[in-house]
Amino acid sequence: MSTSAPETDLAQYYALRAHEYEAVYAKPERQVDIAQIQAWLPGAFEGRDGVEVACGTGFWTPFAARRASRWLATDLNEETLVLARRKPVDGERVHFERRDAYASWAAPTFDAAFAGFWWSHVPLGRLNDWLAALHSGLRPGARVVLMDNRYVEGSNHPIHRRDAQGNTYQLRRLADGSQHEVLKNFPTQAEALAVLGPQACAVQWTETTYYWLLCYTWAPEARG
Ligand SMILES: C[S@@+](CC[C@H](N)C(=O)[O-])C[C@H]1O[C@@H](n2cnc3c(N)ncnc32)[C@H](O)[C@@H]1O
Predict the structure, then answer these.
(1) Ligand 1 centroid to 224 CA: how many Å?
(2) What are the domain boundaries of the chain?
(3) Which of 82, 118, 122, 174 to mutate to test the pocket of ligand 1 (most atoms within 8 A of CB)?
(4) What are all long-range contacts of 14-20, with beta carbons under 8 Å and residues at least 24 apart?
(5) Residues with a CB atom less than 6 Å from ligand 1
(6) If one looks up domain 6-218 in CATH, what number appears?
(7) Looking at ligand 1, which residue's alpha carbon is closest to its atom 12?
(8) What is the pLDDT of residues 72-127, one digit of tens each?
(9) Which of 183, 173, 156 is nearest to 17 (CA)?
(10) Residue 127 CB: number of other CB atoms within 10 A?
(11) Which tens digit of pLDDT belongs to each residue from 7-50?
(12) What's the whole-model pTM score?
């Protein structure tokens, strides 16, 4: 088990896990929720110019990008992007790029953003940094959809420790037998909304059995 910074560990863990990652989407108990979200995603970004953060193997990309006018799916790891680029997407509209989620954009160019199962991996002390970086790429009125796990006993890895900042960690094992401590937070609705602040308008929080979805309109002109 590595003892470097959680962010470094996380990126390395997902690089190693890339080829076995989508097994998480084969869990039988989650199929109803997954199908429901896959059916909903295309309409969420209809006609929009979207960016996807930490797209991983691109499991959700074909659904999120299906009716978007353009879609840029990004991830820090080339190991996951290689698999994402093989997904059945329209290569004219959908592109993939290696990119750090914490990096700011040079200009606000997108009117939609999507991040699946990324919030939970952001240390609590970096949530504001990450959201500021995300929002730096968005035009006013952009639609944002963030989606992640609810903690469900027996379906998620147990929490094995909590640090002084309140981040929680799981121990996970890969097919090669290696064990990894992975930062994985499970925010409540109140905690998530408190981080977003007043510039997130028309906020909607939806829960399925296994997941939560947070949708909002980015309104930088809004004041608290
Ligand atoms: C839980 S996976 C989510 C993948 C995909 N969004 C999904 O829902 O299936 C987290 C992803 O974050 C990526 N990642 C780790 N650190 C990152 C960073 N600093 N910036 C962007 N992506 C990162 C990993 O490579 C991995 O693909």
Answers:
(1) 31
(2) 6-218
(3) 118
(4) 14/56, 14/77, 14/79, 14/80, 15/77, 15/78, 15/79, 15/80, 16/79, 16/174, 16/176, 16/178, 16/180, 17/174, 18/56, 18/57, 18/77, 18/79, 18/80, 18/82, 18/83, 19/83, 20/174, 20/175
(5) 10-11, 14, 54-56, 59-60, 75-77, 80, 100-102, 116-118, 121
(6) 3.40.50.150
(7) 54
(8) 999 999 999 999 999 999 999 999 999 999 999 999 999 999 999 999 999 999 99
(9) 173
(10) 18
(11) 668 999 999 999 999 999 999 999 999 999 999 999 999 999 99
(12) 0.96
Ligand 1 centroid from CA 56, angstroms: 5
Residue type, 20: E
- pLDDT band at residue 3 under the 50/70/90 scheme: very low
The ligand 1 atom nearest the CA atom of 22: 9
